[in-house]
Design goal:
5-stranded antiparallel β-sheet, about 65% helix, 5 strands, single chain, 2 domains, about 180 residues, alpha+beta, SH3 type barrels, coiled coil
């Protein structure tokens, strides 16, 4: 932005100088016209000054054109950079959202490890659908048959035919019939 402001200031200054020089040119031209058959040397000097000023105005106009072109290029670059900034901000927001989701998952996993309760929604749903029904559950420690009486997020509770209540963690189950 600083360079752009500097260029705009410079352009205004050049245009002001151009205006001043055009006024001087007009004044010189008027002076030349008002000399009735006047001094040839004075007319020659005025014409020389007029030519010199016209050359300076042409140079200033050329510089102005170049600066306006540079300003247009800078504006294009600024627009492109702003687009890139917007894209990066959008990507940053998406990444922040993903980080938050991952942090939540990490916190849940840490809690599960600390409590030893590892939820298994599929197993929980399976046993909830069999509430009050007789099931046979196989584990590495043996096979248990009984009526499903309670289902938690990480275990099932059954009542065996003997009346014994057995709590079986989902992580220990190898098969269910």
């Amino acid at each position: 932005m600083g360079k752009e402001n500097e260029i705009l200031k410079y352009l205004k200054k050049i245009k002001s100088i151009e205006k001043d020089q055009l006024e001087v040119l007009e004044e010189i031209s008027n002076q030349i016209s008002s000399i009735p058959g006047g001094d040839a040397e004075q007319i020659r000097q005025l014409r020389q000054q007029l030519n010199q000023l016209q050359g300076e105005v042409a140079q200033l106009q050329s510089r102005t054109t170049v600066l306006e072109s540079q300003n247009a290029q800078l504006q294009t670059q600024i627009t492109q950079l702003q687009t890139q900034v917007n894209q990066l901000e959008s990507q940053d927001a998406q990444l922040q959202s993903q980080i938050t989701q991952l942090q939540t998952q990490v916190n849940q996993l840490q809690e599960q490890l600390q409590t030893g309760i590892i939820p298994n929604p599929a197993m929980q749903s399976f046993f909830e659908n069999r509430m009050g029904s007789t099931v046979t559950i196989s584990t590495q420690g043996g096979t248990f048959t009984g009526v499903v009486i309670l289902v938690g997020p990480d275990a099932v509770q059954i009542r065996e035919a003997t009346g014994n209540i057995v709590i079986i963690p989902f992580t220990q189950i190898t098969a269910v019939q």
